[in-house]
Each structure stands twice: as structure tokens, then as C-alpha cells.
Protein 1
Amino acid sequence: AQSGITVYGILDAGIARETGGAEGSVTKLATGVQSGSRLGFKGQEDLGNGMNAHFVLENGLDLDTGKARQNGALFGRHAYVGLTTSAGTINLGRQCNPIFIALDGIDPFETGFTGSATNLMSIGTARTNNTVSYATPKLNGLSATVMYGFGEQAGDSSLGRTIAFSVDYAAGPLVGTLAYDSLKVTSFNTLKEVLLGASYNFGPATVHAAFETEKNDIGGDFRDFLLGASVPLGQGKLLASYVKKQDRSATKQGGRQFAVGYTYTLSKRTNLYSSYGTIRNELAATNVVGDASSGGSAPAAGNGSRALAVGIRHKF
Amino acid sequence: AQSGITVYGILDAGIARETGGAEGSVTKLATGVQSGSRLGFKGQEDLGNGMNAHFVLENGLDLDTGKARQNGALFGRHAYVGLTTSAGTINLGRQCNPIFIALDGIDPFETGFTGSATNLMSIGTARTNNTVSYATPKLNGLSATVMYGFGEQAGDSSLGRTIAFSVDYAAGPLVGTLAYDSLKVTSFNTLKEVLLGASYNFGPATVHAAFETEKNDIGGDFRDFLLGASVPLGQGKLLASYVKKQDRSATKQGGRQFAVGYTYTLSKRTNLYSSYGTIRNELAATNVVGDASSGGSAPAAGNGSRALAVGIRHKF
Amino acid sequence: AQSGITVYGILDAGIARETGGAEGSVTKLATGVQSGSRLGFKGQEDLGNGMNAHFVLENGLDLDTGKARQNGALFGRHAYVGLTTSAGTINLGRQCNPIFIALDGIDPFETGFTGSATNLMSIGTARTNNTVSYATPKLNGLSATVMYGFGEQAGDSSLGRTIAFSVDYAAGPLVGTLAYDSLKVTSFNTLKEVLLGASYNFGPATVHAAFETEKNDIGGDFRDFLLGASVPLGQGKLLASYVKKQDRSATKQGGRQFAVGYTYTLSKRTNLYSSYGTIRNELAATNVVGDASSGGSAPAAGNGSRALAVGIRHKF
């Protein structure tokens, strides 16, 4: 009677120590540090001839309070239905921006831990409402995704419009991605981001690198650089990255982050982790060391931000 | 360990083009056009002697945003527990009004698509909180349901009180229904609706017809007429209906809707659809072509409303 | 594919008649009278060597409206992930206060029906966000739990801090508990509660008794007494309790509650129930006869409160 529905999720909680913020040093129960806590429902129906219909409904939650994340949306992480044919996959609903998926695949911290690349690098709105996406089949490791998000804002249905795509390669030791995201913020300001990233698994270690440009029509102009490594070590993996956000305008909003982490595997589904991240901010910047879910309070302009976390992540 | 729980749902999304509204022509990602998107949990326990205990918890959601519908209620579509014995079924909780179920069963569009009969015909509050319902067993195709909804409004627990029933017949090619709904809106105004409907399956086509009266104690007085047809055609079904809302008071709030639609079956659980609906409004009317979930913006008084949709519906 | 997830719940609804409140006598659809209505997801992964990882996500809901309880939190009853080893269990997230679990285990009404001990006795905040708990293994019927809740309130991260524990004994006919709860409400006011309770099953009847002190730093000083009995009778159980809240300060906020109830078993998972509770309030007290989920409106100071309920509870 369950029609092949899968109930799945990830729950992640720990203790974090955040320093440098306006509230001073804070020790707290942390949730969703390595990966955002979630509960999902997904299913797939085989329609024959290589076709299938499928869906995902994925809730994001804060495990420390039991509340829904994503501004209280019930299925704020994913909510879509789609069709796959031999010509590719079309999905309709609320989906992750391709540039978010792209950075998540390159960042050694997978945009989590107290060292997520997203602390300094932009991923558009992360997730977008009212979207149609099309993904090509994978051919020799190569695939591409395009996504269009209707604006649907009251008064001007073009505001909030998102145009995004990524071209992805994954074969053998090499992963490469080129991603683009364009969001019409106001009628005279569109935010545009381009990300180029790659990782290469040498065996004893995987090296990760990314380059991103962020520009808008009211003077914003950033260049971001990421260099990282992940190294299998003992019953786990050592992670490290250096991220630099370079502000090419006069606003001095840039910064540099250095982070290290370690995951300790208890099983295929469960691991312990610890990570430490520190940001040095430029003169007017208030960048914060956040994780997959949240971050500490913003520092005074130009001050640093630091966070240390230890916790557990359980998949089901 | 699952105690026979069934997780089920319907997800429906597409593209809609709405014209005639105050916001002009709008193209948008549509959700819940043919049927409202939902995720439900239901179960039944056999208690012996023909008795069972059962429950339904059904969430309604907007697939374009992942948010809960029904003003954010978690289980806003259905939430009840009940007992069935040889003498009938009693349910307690939040339930659909019998007149809604009755119209849903007669309307060729099943109160969905861009041609739902509910665009012009009333179904009470659709769903009511704080209800007790009793349904007779089905005997020779005949059954009846009565529902009482406690008002429970602060200050006056009689406000919001709902009294409703339906008498239903379904056997062979004939479906017939008589439904009543009474809602105490204020201490001196009760809204009363009576619906009479039937459909007859001639084989090559099913013909649908309904008549409704809507009256309240402050002058409201409408008569609604529906005539429709559904015709199996190719790998799907052609649907059409004409609905007229006649305003018998001086307020000129009536209108006429004409709608056509086609569903294309991919499997028992999945279909594609397209539908078009158009409303011509009386002098002061602002009726809108909506679907199973929402509608465009209201037109200026007396202006028309139109909507075209194409999409996919997947059951699980 | 379900990874051993269990979907479970309790749904409880009935009719209640509440008298004595400011709104006068009210008859309403009651929800969660015997037990709060809920839908949960839980799972456990065996990690070998007697270790396991586990989680609980439990939503509380009002069955009369389908809305989430606990101020709309999605998983407001429980939300935690944890590890069990031979040295005990650590859980992280939102959890029940040990003093709530302790009183729930002693009260013949299990803190439900229209006679819950919580109508007059305090259980801290019932559930606390941002908690870490540690529970010892059970040894010869003896176990202990400690819980710490980070305050995490904006501006002062010590506010809301909770320190709590319980020592529990359960073997043969005897259940005993000592529980403590301390909540830092403001920087100069901490609320402290100590509960001592026991029940003994003589065979034809179980006797229940509890004693609690509630003190804060701004003059609050209560002593509470509970005496109760539960008696297997026919196809069910008869329940009764007397609770006295003695105000030792000058504020005259005390009161006395007497309650009786009967559960009628339809199956292991389903029962009918009826209960009646009445509170006599001291001069300035407005204590209300509530149940596992809610209560009537508060009476005028010093007036009594009464509630009668009949309903059904279904577990799945």
C-alpha cells in the first residue's frame, strides 16, 4: 500500500562554541552542523520505456527546537514532481539552485561544518520557488541542468525571476562544474554569479578548487577563491579549506576563512565530527563562520568570527 | 512495526496562464490544478465483529513553495479518528463538508482544473473544524451522512456552528446526491445551501447536472446550474462543463463559466492534463477562474476571467 | 529502503463539557483528552558492541483543527538524536523534562483526562529546547537521568537555562521517582521544583502518591500533594485522584482537584474513555480543569472549574 514511498532523513546535532560575535562567546546546542537536519518522503513510479514519474518532499528542521526551517515552510528543502524520459528529466516545484548543488559538490566541507564555503561564497537563494528544471541524461560523465524560476511577486511578476544552469562532469577521479545563477532582485538590479570548480582524487588525498564571480547592477563586484583537501585518515576523513572573498568594489566587504574538520565513521549511516573555522574580515565586512544550518551573531565590522563544533550525524 | 499505516498523496504541478485579473496576464508555475497537492497518513484497525477504528491525517501543500496550505494547518485537509460498526461510522475532528464531497462527485472536473464548479458554486467552508459526523452503512447504493460542527469561537460558542448532511446514491451508471449545509456566520445571519446533483454514464459519455440554491439572512440569494460531460477519448478523457450562477438579489454578482479539459493517462497513478476555463461576470461580479488550489487575481467588477493550464498529476 | 523507520502515533478526540470558566458552560469537540494527539517518526541503528544510534521526531497536533500544537513547532513533542552505549544514553535536541516524565509515571491519569495532576502540579516547561541529556543504564530497576538545557536567549544566553534530573526505580509492583527541575527565568529569579512520587500495585488496585515543592526567588512557595488509585474493572480501568496545591505564600493561589475516570478497552491499541474533574480554588486562584492538551477558560478568581469528557483514543 506504500506505493514504494521512501521515508528518509538526516539528523545532526552537537555542541558549538561561537566567538567574535556581537553577543560575545556563546556555547550552544548546535543543529545541522555537518548537514542540515531533514525528514523527507520520496518515490518513483516506473512508466515503462525508460520513463518514470517521481517526487520529493523534503522538510528541513532545527533539531534543537523541533521547528521547521526555511521560514517555516513544511517542505522547504525540496518539493517537486517530475518525469524522466530517455531525453532527460523535467521537475516542477521548489528546487535547489544548480550553483548551490555545484558548490556543494566541490567544497570539501560539502557546504557544512563550521567551515562551509557558503560563509564567503554565494549560492544564489540556495533554493527557489516556482521553478521548472530540465536535466540532460548523463553521457560519458557529462550532464547539464537548466532551471527557470517564475518571479510571481505581487505587482510585478518578473521580480524574483531566476535563470540558472550548470554543466557537470564526474568520471573517475575528476569532478568538474561550471554553474551560473541570475536573480532579478529589482527592476534595475540583477545579481549574477558564475562558479567554476573541480576536485581530483589522487588516492591518498582529494584536492578541491573553485573560483566564483558575483556581480550585480548596483556596484557589487566580488571574486571568490577556494582551495581545499580531504584526506582519508584512520576511521574517518580529515577536511581542510581556505576561502578568500575579494571585494573589487570600494565597500571592503571581503574576508578570508580557514577551516579544518574531522569525521569519525561509526557506520555507513552514522558519524561523529568536529570542526573549527575562523574568518578574518576586511574593514567593513561582517562575515560569520556558519555551518550547514546557521551561524553565530555577526561581529563588529572588520572583526573576526570563529566557531568550534563537535557533534553527531545520523542518516536514515 | 508500522501497524498498517499507509503513507499516500497526490502531487500536481504545471504551468498556468491567467488573464483578465487586476495584475494583467500572468504566467506562473501552477500547483494543485487538477487536484490539490497532499501528503497523508491513514490507518485502520480491525476490532472484530465488523468493527474497526481508523484515522486520517492529510496535509495540503503548495508544491511550488513547499508550504502548507489551509492557512498553514499541518493537517488542513483531513484530521480525524473514528469508529465503524454495523450501524455506521462516526468520525471526530476536521472533515470535509458533505456538500463539498457531493459537488466533487458530480462536477466532471471533480472541483479541479481551470474549470472547477466551485468557481461559481458554493461548498460551504469546504472543510470544518470541531466536527462530529455520522455516516450510515451503504444499502442498495443508498447512504447518508450528517455532520455537526461546534462553533467554539471566543465569546460566542454558537458562531461558526455548522449543520450539514447529504443523501447519496451510487449504483450502476447512476450517481445522485442531495446535500445541505448551514453555517451560522453571525448571530443574525446563517448561510444555507442546498445542492441537488446527478450523473449518468451512458457508456460513450457521462452526463453531469447539478442545481444549487444559496441563501443567507442578509439578502443573499443565488441559484446555480451545472451541465457537464466527460467522454473517454484515446488514452484519456475529455471533460467539459457549463456553470451559471444566477443572482436573484439586486447585487448583480452572478456569472457564467465554460470550461474544457483533457487528461492523458500515463499510468493508473500518473497523468498529464490540460484545461481552459473562461468566466463572464455580471455587472458587479468579480468571480475568478480558479482550480483545485488557487486562482488568478480578481478582475475588475463585471470583467471576465480566463485561465489555461497544462501539467502533471502523480498519485502515490 | 525504510531503514527501519517506524511511523507511529496516538489520536484522541471526544466531546467535552466545561463549566465555571469566564465564557460560561461550553460544549466542544475535545482533542487529546486522555493523551495528546501525535504523529511520530523514530528509528534505531545497531552499531555493534551494544551500541546504537537512534532518533525521535514527534509532532503534536490538535485533531479538531489539524494544526500543529506546541506553538506550531513541527516536531514540538520530541526532536532528538542520540547514542546508546553500555555506559548509558546521550540525547541531543528538544526533550521532555525529567520531572514531567516522572509525574506522568505516577499520576493515575498519566497527566491526561479531565483530571491531570498537571492542573495543579508543575512540570517545569514540560519540554525544553537545546538540551543534552544523559541516562544511565537500568540496574536492578534503578536508573537516573540528567538533562541540561542551554538558554540561548538573545542578549543573555544564560536565561532559560534548565538543569534537571530524576532518579527512578521500577521493579515488581513498585515504582518510585525523585525528580528535580531548575529554570533560570530572569537573571534574579530561578524556579525550582522537587517531586517525590511512588505507586504500588497491590493486585486488585494500584495506589499512587506524590509530593512536590515549587519555589522561586520572588516569593513563590507551593507544596503539592497527590493521592490516587487505579483499579482494573470489567473491560477497562477505573481511575481516581485527589490533588491539593497548598500556597505557602500570601498570594492564595492554591486549590484542590478531585477527578474520576474510566477507560474501556476495545483492543490493545484502541479504547473509549470518560472522565470528570472538579477544582475548588483558593481566594485568588484561577486554576482550571485541563486535560492532556488543553483546558476551559479560566474561572473568576476563587471560583471553581469543572470538566466532563467522553472520547476515543487510538494508537498506531
Note: The domain at 6-315 of chain B is CATH 2.40.160.10 (Porin).
Protein 2
Amino acid sequence: MTSSTTEPIKITSKEQAEWFLNQYDTFLFDCDGVLWLGTHLLPRTKEILNYLTELGKKLIFVTNNSTKSRLTYTKKFASFGINVTEDQIFTSGYASAVYVRDFLKLQPGKDKIWIFGEAGIGEELATMGFESLGGIDTRLDEPFDATTSPFLQNGLDDDVKCVIAGLDTKVNYHRLAITLQYLRKTESVHFVGTNVDSTFPQKGMILPGAGSMVESIATSSGRRPSYCGKPNANMLNTIISAKNLERSKCCMVGDRLNTDMKFGVEGKLGGTLLVLSGIETEERALEINEAYPRPKYYIDTLGDIFDLTH
Amino acid sequence: MTSSTTEPIKITSKEQAEWFLNQYDTFLFDCDGVLWLGTHLLPRTKEILNYLTELGKKLIFVTNNSTKSRLTYTKKFASFGINVTEDQIFTSGYASAVYVRDFLKLQPGKDKIWIFGEAGIGEELATMGFESLGGIDTRLDEPFDATTSPFLQNGLDDDVKCVIAGLDTKVNYHRLAITLQYLRKTESVHFVGTNVDSTFPQKGMILPGAGSMVESIATSSGRRPSYCGKPNANMLNTIISAKNLERSKCCMVGDRLNTDMKFGVEGKLGGTLLVLSGIETEERALEINEAYPRPKYYIDTLGDIFDLTH
């Protein structure tokens, strides 16, 4: 099973922090709950990222948020005064696009993708040369009517070879109905889910996540999607191959046991660090559970590593 | 298992038709696919219903459609020139309301119900004296914003003791998000699903059904609903008790194996008749399958019984 048998170590001293950092040359960070909470940067985030860069570490940012493209993410980092390039960022939308191109072998310029989701997915597909339909097309904001929907007027588009579904806060019956028609059209239309997260935290609330929408589509279509985000191996394989990494020298840093820690442990990365600034508690970090592994290390906040080493 | 072992009998002669009718004093009919297809009445529907009434049979109409109340259904029957009273009609919305009142023992005038669904549910609750929230409230048509939603401004309503979820073609993030807040509030808020159907046919298309929406909410909340419509026993118990029926003298007539036929067989009704005017084929009617039972009888259309006996 995925549960690690050794007791998680809480990093509480300078020596532990330095020993922790020395083991890895690459750190993969989840973003929300680790670096920031929504629009609020967590203390010492900038300082620890700069320090790791000074130490010559490679930094990679891995998020299951498919609503923003990697380019849009660089702007979010920049708004916090953190300079990160697009090639350091991996989103579940980007991982889905890579999966469509490299694993499903769809052809840019020929095959099209139907999107149930927000801007981040279509933008990543476009940079690879794929034409996509659906997604943020405002004609989908209109109430569904089978006789007038512009997406049905001339029949379904035969060039659509895949449906990618993720979080869509503009979910409506029109989007659900047309997505279903593509999945029912033929089994040869692939079904990809950006990420399995059933909820996500926002402003102190727990809101419906990508997984809850993908499961609705899975139920109506009677089909199962291939999921691409954490903890799925598709996401890690994309990163390892793009950045030419040695797994044993990588550490995954995140705030969720069932995605981030599972991702690091099942991906056989050298280490995992759980931060308690997001949704998990110390009690949960130490608890042995069949559903997800325990972290190798844990700490209250990522910034504590900066404080301990300075 | 639910699979019946005897071969389904196709009714093809006057003798068979008369023998079939003589066995039962009550006929329970599914509506769409049996009596009509959408807004198009099937041939001889009026004639066979009149004939059964002349023979002294009790007629009951059982639909998993929760979007219309029983009163609204009487108007649909009237539009086809068929005179049916409200007490002959059982919808999954009505069954859900009965379940809330009689099984969950919620108190009209005191306990409230949050609705994810269309008008039929709230109207049935209102006739029982229950106050409901959500549903067709047009303020839910506005985009979701946690800081401005009128459903969150003064906190959640502590009098809400149950969520009923069903088909809602006005599904949006606002409705999904507030429904989730009530289900997360406390386990003591009950979770009822009107019906499990993942899709339904309309104008030659297969569209997302109640089950696909309820499963989305089940995924985000991590909770399982109690389903009330066919084939669930809640629906049949409501009917049997309201109409004081003897199960062995009842025959279920429907167009779906996995809801109507399962409903009749698991409910231990005397007979089941599958009509092939809806979504099933003769091949499927005869096939032995673990997931649903075979009918006792089948026929191309309900109207054929009239033709055979006249």
C-alpha cells in the first residue's frame, strides 16, 4: 500500500532543516495552501524560494488548478513579486494537453478537443496548435435548447477526438448536455479529467471541485475518464520527462495528503514534505490511513524552513 | 438476484391480451415512453386507458420526473384529452416529499428543506405545509460569489433539516455551492435524491438526468443520498399505502428495464409489462442480465392491447 511505515519527522531545528535541504536538488511545490492562500501570500514564501534558488535548487510548481494557464500563473507569481518562468509551472490543464498530444497522439491542426472547463485548458491546447471547442465559448452561457443550440445545428464536429473536463464555475445544462453528446457519439472520443479533487477551499469555504463535475459527466455518459492531475502518474511523468529529473533527488512539498503526498510517494520521489498551512492538521499527518500515505517530513509552514536556517 | 427465470411472453393475440388483463385489478404506468413521447401522444393511449377504466381497473401513473408537480401532471394529461386526478399520479418529487414527512418525520411549519431541483419538488412540499428554500429561487440564477450570495449573507438557515436533489436544467455553480454548504453543515441534515436515472431521452437525444446531478453533489459532499423514485422501494411503499393495494393484483407497465421492470419485480407486484415504444428493444427484453430483471410480458406498444382486444 501507499502508507509509509516510518514515522513522519517534524522539522523543528536548524540542523534538521539543513539536512532536509541537502538531500534534494529539486523541489516540487503545490501552490495554494503552501505558497499562498487564495490572494494572500504566506509569510516568508518569497524568502524561502529565493534561498533555495541561491542554494542552486531547481524549483517546480505543480497545481491541480486547471482554470488558469501556465502563462497566467506566471502573472500570479509576479503579482506577489516572485519571478517564475512558464517552464517551471505544471497545471492539470497543461498535463491534460500533454497527455492528449503525447499519450493519445492526437494531431494538432487536425484533431479537435471539446472542453468542459475554464480558460486554462484551451490556452494550453492552443499553444500546442490544437483547436478546441466549448469551454469558455459564451454561446454556451445561453440556456440549452436542442433545436437552437449552435453546437448541434450542423451536427457534432467529427474532428473532435477527445473531451477534456475540469472545474467550470460556469457549469450549466448547455455545457453538460453537449459534453454528453460528444462522449456518447463514439467510444473513440477519449475522455480526460483534469483532476480528481472533489472540492477546494476558498475564502474559508469548501466549494465543489473538478472531480464533482467530472463525476457528473461520468455518470451521465457511463464512461470513466483518465485523470491527469495529482496524484495521477500522468502529471509526474510529464514533469520528469520535460525537466529531465532524477526522482530520488526530488522532494514534493504540499498541503494535501490524498493528492500531494500520494503524488510524491507513489511517484517514488526521494522525499515528501507536508505543510500544515493548508487543509491538513498534525493529527492527520501522523495518522495511519489506507487511503493515503504519511509524509516523510512535515512542518507548520514552508516559511519556517527559512526562519530555522537564518 | 432480480433476474426472473421464466422467459418473457410477448402478447400477440386476443386471448393472451384478455388473459393478461384478467389477472390484475390495478395497472401502474410509467408515462414518458409508454403513454407519450415528450409532447406526442402514442397511438391508442386514450383508447386503452378508457377501456381499462370500463373494465373497472384502477389506473395509477408513476413517473420519475420531479420537475412537475402532480397537479401540473393532471394538466399534461388534460392537454391530451385524458382525465386523470391528482391522487392517481405519483412523481419522484412527491415520493421525496412523502419520505421527508413520513419516514424522516420532519415537521411542516417548523423544519425546512433546501431544494436542488425544479418546481415539482417545492410545490409538493408546499401542499404538505413545508417551507422550502433554493430550487427555483431566481436569486440562484446569479453567478456565485461567496461574499454576496443572499443565501450566505446571514449564515445558513438552521431550520433546514434536509436537502432534496433532483433534475435541474438550471444547474449552475451557485446552486451546487449552496447545496454543498447545507450537506457539509452537519450530518443531521438529511440527503434525499429524487431518482437515480443518469439520463433521459428528449427529442431523439439522450440528456443528463437527475442521477448525474445528484452524483455530482454526492461526490463533493462525500455523502450518499437516499433515493426515492423508481426502482426504490420508497416510491412503491408510498403508492401501496396511499391507495391500499394488493401487490399480487398489480401490474407495472413501463419502458425501462432498470427502473420500471426492476421496480415491479423487486416490489413483488403480480406482473410486469415492458413496452418497446420507449428506450428498450426486444433483444434487451429477452437478454438475461445481472443488473435488472426481465419482464413477465412485453409488447410493442401499449395501444396494441387495445387493438388486440377490439
Note: The longest helix of chain B spans residues 173-185.
